[in-house]
Amino acid sequence: YELLGAFQRAYLVSGVVIEKSDEAVLDRLARATSEDLLSNVYVVGTSENDKIQYQKNSLIDKDKTIGQVTITSYKPDEIVLSVDTIRPGFLVVSNNFHPNWEAFVDDKKAEIVRANHAFQAVSLSELGEHEVIFRYRDPILWWVHLGFLVGLLLVVFGVVWQINAFQSNPESHG
């Protein structure tokens, strides 16, 4: 089975469309064509600073070819991409946006933008080859792992203690 016309898991876009609310982004997405979606990233920006920041990475020339993206590793909590850009733009990753994701472009922390209402994007303003890494970091998950390990150790300790108590005094148990 092949889903024809599906977007890639990660792709580059050259334009940015800034709306004032999530509802406005959803409205623009509903009216956008496939070509629009492959050329632009749709974001919420609420101030003039947002417009300046995003528009400096946007191109007036909407040439479709701005570079290539290759997924080199894809794990549940880490995505590694090799990107080669010939124009500035945004790398869009079709994973759900969540604030616990972090992005690194060439080992430098990068801001993840909530793109197209549900996805993730990072700005790539420098041309050339880049390694882009997305990592999911959930601090609560580490506490859960630690709690599980402590609980497991307590169970093992309790079993060993009971076995030792039984072996040292067998006549009192039978």
In percent, how much strand structure appears in the residues?
Answer: 35-45%
Summarize the biggest pleated sheet.
5 strands, antiparallel
Q: For the terminal residues, how far apart are their CA atoms?
A: 66 Å
Number of E strands: 11
How would you describe the shape?
Answer: elongated
Description:
The termini are far apart. The strands form three sheets. This protein has a five-stranded antiparallel sheet with strand order 4-5-11-7-8, with no helix packed on it. Strands 1-6-10-9 form a four-stranded antiparallel sheet. The model has no long low-confidence stretch (mean pLDDT 86). The chain has helices at residues 22-31, 34-39, 48-55, 139-168, and strands spanning 10-13, 15-19, 40-44, 67-75, 78-85, 89-93, 101-105, 108-110, 113-115, 119-124, 128-136. It has 174 residues and is α+β, with helices and mostly antiparallel strands.
